[in-house]
Design a protein that fits this description.
Blueprint: E1 50-57, E2 64-68, H1 69-75, E3 79-80, H2 83-89, E4 98-101, E5 105-112, E6 126-133, H3 138-151, E7 162-168, E8 171-177, H4 184-189, H5 198-217, E9 222-223, E10 232-234, E11 240-242, E12 249-250, E13 259-260, H6 272-277, E14 279-280, H7 282-298, H8 314-322, H9 342-355, H10 366-375, H11 379-382, H12 386-390, H13 399-407
Parallel strand pairs: 3-7
Antiparallel strand pairs: 1-2, 4-5, 5-6, 6-8, 7-8, 9-12, 10-11, 13-14
Helix pairs in contact: 5-7, 5-10, 7-9
The structure holds adenosine-5'-triphosphate and magnesium ion (MG).
Residues 1, 3, 25, 99-105, 107, 129, 131, 160, 176, 178-179, 182-183, 230-231, 233, 243-244 line the site of adenosine-5'-triphosphate.
């Protein structure tokens, strides 16, 4: 789920178990620059919460009408599960059924009957992913409700499907379709992961762009606000599905260009103007998506605290290299070996460069980003020269050779680029 961004001095990392190179999940209040205490208040009176709806507007048509929790839950197309049903679907939230942990909760594998959605035995019926929110999180409850609000009504092949929810006492859970290959972050950065080939990377980028375009171009625009590799789930065919709608916001209406909001998101992915001013527009999603493109292109994390300071932020670091055709090869993910199309890589880098422009107005709209990505499947951009094909991809090269492969990336021509050892 989402995170709130802080000025560096008061960053509060809520992922205690995370690797230092992970994009951090932080909490703050933008207006006052004061941190919200880490021990968040449990929301015992959730029904007082209201969330702006993407689908309803007041009579002036300018602003979305806030809806109460009761209205949101009754309008949702998903099932209202009891806690005991979900307990039984996950065998009492057994540790071996744990498939992930985020800032606000744990995700378990569970089994339900395909028709009735009643809990079933492991291995029988349909697999679902059940997110159980940590109890003490008020922010968690708010995001839970936002998620039911949006995902309960929006359906698209590139958005994860919300099957149901549970609100019983202090327990807040969400039940999703199970997306078998897990998140993109693990595929890109886990040591043991099989490297993704070029075509798969483009397919993932296209699927993600379709999901975001759908949100931006809906009759009532939705800004997703948390585009990042860990929120992009992959099905067995590598179709991308956006998950985690806890930070989604109704976009500006009428003549407005943005909405003003507390700054929430993930460091390394959040757009600079949004961090600086709290003004949020769909172009902030375009920026974050551009950072995901950079991760796909370079195999490096959006934010890596294990690097020295000027190199921690991927977008800032690689920006100068993206538009230089001759130097581009220096930043391409060494796990691709030579097996990527030069022309396609150049076009992708140029597109990413536009998406991460510091001037939001210069970023292309998501529909245009999608069209450009679809063109990269054209043989003209997807062609890998036979010479490159003959070379081995790093997938089949021993680790020691991989180190050699990256060590030729030396700043021989003036840049401050240095070889990096990839995990
Ligand atoms: N529907 C799903 N199908 C399969 N795996 C899932 C599903 N939903 C979540 N997961 C797994 O659980 C992990 C944790 O999800 P969660 O959204 O709580 O946290 P996160 O995205 O990793 O971090 P954040 O709290 O910053 O969003 C995901 O990264 C993913 O690997
Ligand atoms: Mg997430």
């Amino acid at each position: 789920m989402g995170n709130c961004l802080n000025p560096p001095s008061s960053v509060e990392d809520s992922r205690t178990s995370q690797n230092s190179s992970y994009p951090s999940k932080v909490v703050t209040s933008r207006a006052s620059s004061l941190s919200v205490p880490s021990s968040r208040t449990t929301c015992s009176t959730p029904s007082t919460l209201t969330i702006p709806s993407y689908s309803e507007k007041n009579s002036s048509g300018d602003l979305p009408t806030p809806r109460t929790e009761g209205q949101i839950l009754s309008a949702s197309n998903s099932k209202d599960f009891t806690y005991s049903e979900l307990k039984s679907a996950t065998r009492n939230f057994r540790p071996e059924n744990l498939i992930g942990e985020g800032g606000f909760g744990y995700v378990y594998k569970g089994w339900v009957d395909e028709q009735s959605l009643a809990p079933s035995k492991p291995g029988h019926g349909m697999i679902v992913a059940i997110k159980k929110l940590k109890r003490e999180s008020f922010q968690g409850h708010k995001e839970w409700l936002t998620e039911v609000n949006y995902l309960g009504q929006l359906q698209h092949p590139n958005l994860v499907k919300l099957i149901g929810y549970c609100s019983e006492g202090d327990n807040r859970l969400l039940v999703y379709e199970y997306v078998a290959r897990g998140n993109l972050e693990n595929h890109l950065f886990r040591r043991s992961a099989q490297p993704l080939d070029w075509q798969t990377r483009i397919k993932v980028a296209i699927g993600t762009a379709r999901g975001i375009s759908f949100l931006h171009d809906s009759k009532s625009q939705v800004i997703y606000r948390d585009v990042k590799a860990s929120n992009i789930l992959l099905d067995p065919e590598f179709n991308a599905k956006l998950s985690d709608f806890g930070l989604a916001k109704a976009g500006p209406t009428g003549d407005r260009t943005h909405i003003s909001t507390q700054v929430m998101g993930t460091q390394g992915y959040a757009a600079p103007e949004y961090i600086a001013t709290g003004r949020l527009s769909a172009r902030a999603d375009v920026y974050s998506f551009g950072v995901v493109l950079l991760e796909l292109l370079t195999g490096r994390r959006a934010l890596d605290r294990s690097r020295e300071l000027p190199k921690q932020n991927l977008a800032d670091w690689v920006r100068p290299w993206l538009t230089d055709k001759r130097k581009l090869h220096k930043i391409i993910d060494p796990k691709l070996g030579e097996q990527y199309p030069k022309r396609g890589a150049h076009a992708l880098a140029q597109l990413a460069s536009r998406c991460i422009s510091n001037d939001a107005k210069r970023r292309p709209p998501m529909s245009e980003v999608l069209t450009s990505l679809e063109q990269l499947q054209d043989p003209k951009f997807a062609f890998v020269s036979p010479r490159a094909k003959e070379g081995k991809s790093s997938a089949s090269i021993p680790r020691s050779s991989l180190r050699f492969l990256v060590s030729h990336l030396h700043p021989s021509d003036g840049g401050n680029w240095e070889p990096i050892s990839h995990q």
